[in-house]
Each structure stands twice: as structure tokens, then as C-alpha cells.
Model the fold of this input.
Amino acid sequence: MSRIPRRASAALVAVAAATALALAAPLSASAHVSLDGNTAEPGSYALLTFKVPNESDAARTVSLTLTLPADTPFTSVRTVPVPGWTAELVREKLPEPVTVGETQITEAVTRIVWTADAGAGLGAGELGLFPVSLGPVPDTGSILLPVDQGYSDGSTVSWSDAAEGSEHPAPVLYVNDAPAADHHGGTDDDHATPEVTSAPDAAAPDAQPPVDVLARVLGIGGLALGAVGLVLAVVWRRRAADAVAGPREPRDGGDA
Done:
């Protein structure tokens, strides 16, 4: 049985390792709590879905706490049942009375707490979807929606950073402000309704990010396959050259 030369084997291993790292980089970069649809019109009742990936290989996600704004409160907060989870609406007195429409309110729902049932939760490599209806949406620029993700080992990851490019960015609902192109609040996978135009084939902006991720994965895979093919071609050419040259003659020095 023929064997692949050591140099070729090493090259194949290097190509495989580089491919794994390249594929892992874009996938790990998108592993954060985000909004599936991160825009809403003022005065509307928005159905938002929080996408929660489990980032731990050893612990399960067993709780999720969404903090709602107290300065621009929502008067209507409703959760959608999630199998294996129990939702609790926490209503508190506001620091200052807020006028919503023609009504002055002094208390509102400030937190939503999802708790996994016994034996449930999100395991390694799993993604949870947590829908909630909020309204009426305040007439403001954008709304920060921090989320605390609790794990079965007692640790908590707080997705509350407002700065763009931060390690744990908070989901953001954009109302009058335009969504930031690279904000982690949901622009990676938003499914916001596009503005209606006269062009019948106008593409929704939310369709682009998934295609971009797929294109990156396919592109990296193509480069890896091309590199493997190059290595195998070199090995084949060396074997062909050895076959044409034939076996080497023994050195002189035997009996005459």
C-alpha cells in the first residue's frame, strides 16, 4: 500500500486546522444575544424575538432577565409561551411619573424573567428564541434592552454594553435612529419590515446577512478544498516522476 509522503501529510493537517479556525471565527463572532428584527415605528406594538445562544460547553442556560426602560416605559408587555420555560413580568414603581399619550403612569413592567423548568434549559450548541410584544413604542431614537443570561453553574453573562464593538453588547431597538451597520443588537439577523417603495422587487435588508454568512462559509470551504487538491496534485506528480525514472540501479562494488 502506497503512503503519502510526510511533507504532504503535514500540509494536509495544516490545511484542515486552518479551515477549522477560519470557520470557527465568523461563527463565534455572531454568538451573542440579539434581536431578530431590531426596528419599530413610534406608537406601534412590536413583536420582538430575542435570540439567545448557549456559549458554555459545560453549563446550561437556565434563566434570562430582560430589563425594560423606566424613562420610556412600555404600557403593554406580553410574552409568548416558550416550551420548557416560565415567564414572569416584574412590575415596579417608576422613579418619576411618565406621560404616555394622554395618560400619566407611575408604575410599569421593568423586567421580564424567563426561568427554565426542571431538566430544561439550553445546552451546548443550542439556541433559544424568546418572543415578547412591547408597546406602544416610544417616539425616541433607540432603546437599549439589556439581557442577563444565567447558567446552571451559577455564572451570569450580562449583555448590557452600549458601546459598539464591545464584548457583551446589549440588544438595541431602533425607532427613529438608523440601525448601526455593525451593532450586535440584531443587525446580524434582523428581519425588520422594509420601507415600502415603488420597486416590486426591492429586497428586504434582512435577507442579506444570512447570505453573507453562507457565502463566507462556502468561500472558506472552497479555498480549503483547493489547497487540498493542490497538495494531492503535487504528490501525484512526484509519484509519476518516480515511476518514469524506474528503479534505481545498485551501486558498483559487487563481484565482477
